[in-house]
Fold this protein.
Amino acid sequence: MVNPLQSRTGTVITGVILALIIAVLLKTPDANGVITYAVNPLEINVWLHAIVGIAWVGLLYYFNGIQIPAVGAALADGDPGPAAINKYIAPRALFWFRWAAVLTWITGVGALQHMGGLHGAFTFAEGWQVIGMGAWLGTIMLINVWVLIWPNQQKILGLKEASPEEIAKAKVVALMASRTNTALSFPMLLGMTSFGHGLPF
Ligand code: HEM
């Protein structure tokens, strides 16, 4: 079977389909046959708002915090050309990438704790399944960052000793983990936004 994560379009389509399937599955009735979640078609808009907002502001931070200062540092070192990407830009981007993931997780857990739903969300207790799905997917994404993406990127960028075969393998693993996270981000954000706004249909 063709792996949809082999292409960027396939990755996005996989994520959207996953989100729609999960939205249907989460609307399961409780023990009394009552569907406990509100349904709100406007949620589609809120979900898209979060996705494109993250894309916009994520890139804003990337340009201001990573690319502009990294290119400045590369030019000050005598303009290494395209090599500047691996040497100056990627390590800086990956630093913020992996630590922002940790801080997102910690603040998410903090929010759940504050709402009295930390245990409920992670065990999919009644009333907590929607945010629980988002929290679990966010947790899986964090693990992917630290266990699969970062160690393999270190080999790819030459920050860690690796043979050419190991580097070739690292590229495949890092790309697939990265595309998995891209696909998972769509249902994850549906969980985040639907908790407060209702499921989309
Ligand atoms: C992985 C990246 C994550 C992103 C981009 C993200 C994004 C968001 C967004 C946009 C909201 C606002 C939803 C709304 O009010 O409409 C939200 C709420 C929330 N998120 Fe996340 N989240 C992430 C991970 C996590 C994780 C890992 C957890 C828990 C372990 C978590 C727990 C929560 C909680 C408890 C809320 C508050 C829900 C509410 O009060 O309605 N998030 N998140």
About this structure: DSSP finds six helices and no strands in the chain. Residues 46, 50, 54, 104-105, 108-109, 111-112, 115, 131, 134-135, 138-139, 141, 188, 192-193, 195-197 surround protoporphyrin IX containing FE (CB under 6 Å). Residues 145 and 184 are 13 Å apart (CA to CA).
